[in-house]
Specification:
Number of domains: 1
Strand order of the largest sheet: 1-2-3-6-5-4
Number of strands: 6
Helix content: 25-40%
Structural class: alpha+beta
Radius of gyration: 22 Å
Oligomer: single chain
Distance between the termini: 83 Å
Length: 136
């Protein structure tokens, strides 16, 4: 049975049944507040993590709620997340999803600022050249 249709997915941390968000590939544990994202939801909420899966670690990990196979560790910044290679789901402990999204957005903001500064360099150079031309 595909994990998306199951209603008995256990939390990989505390074993409590996960609660699914309506019609989404997203589940939450009411006890430890962890979040499980399926591939479709991951592509929306944290697409950059799909690339991190290739650099996964295989140390002892909790079992996947969907298939019970050991999950692998993927890293994002200093955050370790658990991913099932078979089902392509990612487990976020409490507050990790928000932190990962916040870090990604702050990196995007920094890149936008750097890009804007790079675009301003030619303008500053032109202004300096024009200012030099105006000197007697």
């Amino acid at each position: 049975m595909p994990f998306r249709t199951r209603t008995d997915l256990p939390c990989p941390r505390c074993g409590v049944p996960l609660v699914r968000y309506a019609d989404r590939d997203k589940w939450r544990c009411k006890r430890c507040v962890g979040v499980l994202l399926g591939p479709a939801e991951l592509a929306v909420e944290a697409p950059w993590l799909l690339e991190e899966a290739a650099r996964a670690s295989t140390s002892a990990q909790p079992p996947c709620p969907a298939c019970a196979q050991p999950m692998t560790t993927i890293g994002f910044e200093n955050i370790e997340l658990d991913r099932c290679d078979a089902d392509k789901v990612v487990w976020f402990d409490a507050a990790e999803l928000g932190l990962v999204v916040e870090i990604a957005h702050s990196e995007a903001d920094r890149e936008a600022e750097l890009s804007q500064l790079e675009q301003q360099k030619p303008l500053a150079l032109i202004q300096r050249i024009l200012a030099d031309d105006e000197t007697p």
